[in-house]
Design goal:
Elements (H helix, E strand, L loop, with lengths): L15 H10 L8 E4 L5 H12 L1 H5 L5 H18 L7 E7 L11 E11 L9 E10 L8 H15 L4 E7 L3 H9 L3 E5 L2 H5 L6 E7 L5
Parallel strand pairs: 4-5
Antiparallel strand pairs: 1-2, 2-3, 3-4, 5-7, 6-7
Organism: Phormidesmis priestleyi
InterPro entries: Acyl_CoA_acyltransferase, GNAT_dom, N-term/lysine_N-AcTrnsfr
Protein name: GNAT family N-acetyltransferase
């Protein structure tokens, strides 16, 4: 799943190495939104963000079809709960939280992203791994305000901390808004992942994008 809205250009941020050190210490990052590692208490908020971003039609269906929404909610929740138990050296779930003068609204989760180490080729016995970004999502009312770019920058920092200088993600070929967002962040086309299915018009092309991380930027 990929975030579907492009973000405006942001002012220069601190180098990834500095962000990585701040993230490791649990410090608030100097961004329009605060980005931090997800905690168990954030689970329901993360699920809500993902459902609102990727499953909008499900949210509008009427009973008795509402059971589909609850089924998907439980499935997503259990998947993330399982991944949150993975070692921090292999996986990280991030949340972007709102900075607001009203204490009742401050700290609300408005976006999320996940980064993990995944095998490059699953058919190999001991395949090399790469940093892979997934489930980047922002609540609709907070899009185009810079939160997605801040999550992407933090993922760059985590990947560097793991020893990777490249980061990968998938996006559907018909999701032009998401492609614009990732292009702005420095991602380029690496390969087309499902040319057979797209050729048969079973589903759109699934594009694998790659970014070369520059530690000095």
């Amino acid at each position: 799943m990929s975030q579907a809205n492009a973000e405006p250009a942001l002012p220069p941020a601190a180098p990834p190495a500095v962000l990585a050190e701040q993230f490791a210490k649990g410090e608030a990052l100097p961004t329009p939104f605060r980005v931090r590692s997800a905690q168990p208490k954030d689970l329901l908020a993360i699920v809500h963000v993902l459902l609102a971003s990727f499953y909008t039609p499900i949210l509008t269906i009427q009973p008795p079809a509402q059971w589909l929404y609850w089924l998907m909610r439980i499935g997503i929740q259990e998947d993330i709960k399982t991944r949150l138990k993975l070692p921090v050296s292999q996986y990280a779930c991030l949340v972007a939280t709102q900075v607001h003068p009203d204490s009742a609204l401050a700290g609300a989760v408005i976006g999320t992203a996940e980064i993990s180490q995944r095998p490059c080729e699953r058919w190999q016995l001991f395949p090399p791994k790469r940093a892979y970004l997934s489930n980047l999502a922002i609540k609709p009312e907070y899009r185009r305000q810079g939160a997605a770019q801040q999550l992407l920058k933090t993922c760059d920092s985590i990947a560097l901390g793991w020893g990777f200088h490249r980061i990968y993600l998938h996006v559907m070929a018909d999701n032009l808004a998401a492609q614009a967002l990732y292009a702005q962040a420095g991602y380029e086309l690496y390969e087309v992942s499902n040319p057979v299915l797209s050729g048969l018009r079973i589903r759109p092309q699934r594009l694998l994008l790659m970014k070369q991380i520059d530690p000095s930027r």
